[in-house]
Amino acid sequence: MTARSGNERRRRVAVTLGALWDLRIELAILNHRVGSRVEIKDLDFDCLDVIARHGPISPSALAGRVGVHLATMTGILNRLQEARWITRERADTDRRAVVVASTPGRQRELFAIWGAMNSRMGQVCDRYTDEQLEIIADFLQRTVAAGRDSADEIDRAPIQG
Q: In angstroms, rounded to a whole number, what is the distance separating the alpha carbons of residues 161 and 157?
């Protein structure tokens, strides 16, 4: 690799990573505004999103996934259940255990609010070929895995200070 091609590669990587940080910020702002619209706190909204995408899930698994203490999770789930965003049910595999699931009717409310963003993302995706979309999806899935691994690494590291 020549110095010029190495510099160009570093520039492209920097632009890509910068765009990811910009995306993180814009999605956080969008999520905050959607959460505010339906009167859900930011962390509660994150938990609801994990439940909707990966549930039913146990409260302890959800607490571990989002990195909060189980007592904090209990408060979050109480708020979400009171507002009818989730249900708590006995687990099929262990009747002593509880799992939480999103409420489909309330999820439709969120889909309506997200409608404009979903339309815009459809337009963005329309600009790419199927092969390019496969590459983009692979990149994003690998980025998600890197983020999850990094979060787990932070949890395992001793607290300094």
A: 12
- 23 token code pair: 């995306």
Calpha distance 130→76 (Å, rounded): 40
Q: Is the CA virtual torsion 16, 18, 19, 23 positive or negative?
A: positive
**Banded pLDDT at 55 (limits 50, 70, 90):** confident
Of 155, 51, 65, whose CA–CA distance to 98 is shortest?
A: 51
- Exposure string of 77-91, with b = 16+ CB inside 10 Å and e = fewer, is bebbeeeebbeeeee
Q: Is the pLDDT of residue 1 over 70?
A: no
Q: Which two tokens stand for residue 97?
A: 């255990």
Q: 48 is written with which tokens?
A: 């609801």
